[in-house]
Amino acid sequence: MKRWSVRIGACALALLLLLGAVMSAFPYVIEAASSASVTYAFSGNDAAKAGFGEGTITVTPASGASASGYYLIYFADDNGLLGGYDELASIPMTGGAVTYTVKEGTLLPPSATKIAVFESSSAFLDTPPSYSTRVATVAIPSQKRLVPADVAFSFGAVSDVHINYESLGYGAKKKWVNTLNFFAAQGMDKVIVTGDMTGDEDSAPMTEQYTEYLELINQSNYPLSDIYEAIGNHGNTAVGRTQFVQYTGGAGEIHPTADSAWFSVLVEGKTAGERDNLFLFMAQELSAPGSSALVDNFSEEQMDWLEGMLRTYGDTETNIFLIEHSPFLNYGAGDRHPGDYSRMITFADKFPQNMRLKGLLETYKNLIHLSGHTHLSLYDNENYSTENGTSCRMVHVPSGCQPATYNNANNALGSGDGRHTVNASYGSEAYTVRVYDEYIVFTGHNLTTGKIIPSACYILPVEVPADPEEAFEGKGTLEEPYLIQDAADFKALTNGFNSSVSSAETEMYGYGKYFLQTADIDMTGVAGYSGTTANSGAKTYFAGIYNGGGHTLTVDIQSYGMRSVFPYTYGTIANLHFKGRIVADEGAQPIRSLYGSAVNILADMELSAACANGLAYSNYSFTYNTYTHGVLGGDKPDAFTVSDYSDDYHNLYHWYTLSNGTAVTDAQGTRSNDAATIAAAFNSHADGVYQRALEALGGFELEEVAAANGDVVFKWTLYAPGDVDMDGEPSTVDARIIVKDLLYDTSKLTVTQKHLADVDGSGEINSRDLRVLLSSLIQ
Questions:
Q1: DSSP label at 762?
Q2: What's residue 281's pLDDT?
Q3: Which residues in 203-294 belong to E strands, given as ranges?
Q4: Handedness of CA 123, 128, 131, 137 (dihedral sign)
Q5: Cβ–Cβ under 8 Å, residues 234 and 218
Q6: CB 633 within 8 A of CB 659
Q7: Distance between CA 758 and CA 772 in Å, rounded?
Q8: Are strands 439-446 and 458-461 parallel, antiparallel or unpaired?
Q9: Alpha carbons within 13 A on the beta-carbon side of 540
Q10: Cα(673)–Cα(627) distance, rounded to whole angstroms?
Q11: Which DSSP state fits 462?
């Protein structure tokens, strides 16, 4: 048995967390000030990293301070305020200490060395105050100051161009040309428009609107071939989508079909070793204007395409940007909870394709989702979200024509830039986006004033996919298998499943590799875990040998589509006890499809879907020693499999019922819950099938089972660690067994005894186990 040592990565993580905790707990040195003091305490997962500003700024006035007015907070350097920046925050004065929360993802400007606090009678100032009037400053520690590397790739991002608003007095045409010229001056490689370049057909014929839109591009300094658009809700009809495809489009667009309004663009790294950048443009082809929240917005065909693209690229070293016009009601960036705009996409069970999208956002957390639609101004500080770490990075892109702020009654406060509502022609906002090797920076711009909006500048870590050689301890061999030791390991394993899209056996995830689960694992509540979505339209694969080691694997999966713990399995799953529940709409089962082997499988599950299956949706395999029981729900419940293409199963038992208690009897194998009979059958090694089971295990050992409290369990779990002779209590007799047999010849011990002799749970039987056992006996 291999020693299960502590991974270096875990030590590094602990060090980072400790440093983050120290940085959060101790604010930084305060410069002398006349009437107030200020502290800046960093927090969050990236508290130890340079450039990440998430944290809390606290301003404490001297006694007797005014309770009216505002504290204005600015970034500064050693010479004064940063030029070209608006204030970071405006905080109403109360006469006492006040705080400002710097949100997740906020960028510390690379040139900033401190923050400065001013008192003001106004909530913001068009002209920055004199640095000499500051009331307090605090230094940004040197280790938090970002030193940017070379930019690998860049693009400008804008939404809701609305050249049709020209007739409403917004100056839409000039703003669009100015936006493109700004991107050109900033050296942006590409331009991304997240929808609504025009109006609807009732504004003017769509052909005329698109023709004018293209003419305006030709008037700018930016090339048409480097501009890419997603279709918005305006002009989004069957005819409008055809015209969108015809009149828009940059170089290199790949449309799955000639007329699909959804498509991909892959921008390869400029030099060897640079990451590629993949843009996936979606289209709400099932929405009519004004009804986005009332329908399932995407066709199954489009979602199959999206899921396939994410499975192909989602776990590779590729930056993925998902461009989709509408944000989501009560979810993510661009939505000031509980929702300010009438036509957001709604996540609800009655909209299965919308729910598929939600599941993908939560599964592929390396995604960067870009939306538009609401015109929400960058000044509202609601344009970035990860839903508290449960979803991908979501960035809402503002309008280049009509940014707007919303009040508590969900009404737009005129036009302008979110705080100025001077006149309709005022106001234009956009992002410049710069991609580096280790992070991506979004910079929010007020294009009317030329100012950078610091609360709308974000830094997003580049997500590096886990390599099995690095994700797990071990080497993937029989002697030193990859160790699945905790929930993080199983999540990484699942990521491997979900990224394996090739049906070539040697390219399937885990091919020729051995995996050993070393402890009971509970995936309940693990952020981003929703099992595998393997289905017939988008298959994913596993071809390794997974040995559960007699441990339990508990899941609580509630999602869409066809949900399983393991995908299409061409390898072997053995010695594993499934527990928990899977709830989905299409299918729910522990294993999607069995093409390899299932050996020594216990399952105690609640499974509910249109097609719920006790072990697998389809079976083509050799199955030996399985006992599945629990509750099934849905239209087509089956205690084993709904699609059986094999009769090569042995010792197959089940005891499933429906939610109303009715027995599920229409299944292969034997309906029985007689634990003693099942355990005896499992442990009988008399026939030749047992040898086939050992071959399927590839060298792993077959665990024994036992009847306990009316259930079937893996036998070694019934005894305390150290109780090698299994007499019910660890003793000096067990210590002598370790001394006499284990240190010299472990071949005399059964699999169960080896588990029990590994007293410290290290995975290896050695003198430490003896010391731990003797110490416990002395106590």
A1: S
A2: 98
A3: 227-229, 263-267, 276-281
A4: positive
A5: no
A6: yes
A7: 10
A8: antiparallel
A9: 31
A10: 9
A11: P
Q: Contact 207/246 with Cβ under 8 angstroms? A: no
Residues 6+ apart with CB under 8 A from 706: 679, 712, 713, 714, 715, 718
Q: Which two tokens stand for residue 115?
A: 């923050």
111 with 78: CB under 8 angstroms? no
CB 528 within 8 A of CB 553: no
Give the residues of the chain that fall short of pLDDT 70.
1-34, 287-293, 336-342, 406-418, 421-423, 464-469, 536-537, 741-747, 762-763, 779
CA angle 413, 174, 284 (to 5 degrees): 65
Determine if the peptide bond prior to 481 is cis (ω within 30°).
no
Measured CA to CA, the distance from residue 308 to residue 264 in angstroms comes to 12
CA dihedral for 513, 518, 524, 528, sign (positive or negative): negative
Q: Which residues contact 519 (CB under 8 A, 6 or more apart)?
A: 485, 486, 551, 761
Nearest alpha-carbon partner for 574 in 613, 625, 612: 625
**How many residues can be counted in the chain?**
779
Count the neighbouring beta carbons within 10 Å of the beta carbon of residue 769.
24
Both tokens of 779, joined, read 């106590």
C-alpha 155/C-alpha 277 separation (Å) is: 11
Residue 14: predicted pLDDT: 34
Q: Which of the 8 DSSP states describes residue 402?
A: -
Vertex 713, ends 710 and 714: CA angle to 5°?
155
In the beta sheet, which residues pair with residue 42? 55
Contact 567, 592 (CB under 8 A): yes
Q: What is the Cα–Cα distance from 583 to 609, expressed in whole angstroms? A: 6
Question: b vs e for 325-348, b when ≥16 Cβ sit within 10 Å of the residue's Cβ?
Answer: bbbbbebbbbbbeebbbebbbbbe
How many C-beta neighbours within 10 Å does residue 478 have?
16
pLDDT value of position 745: 65
Q: What single DSSP character describes residue 86?
A: -
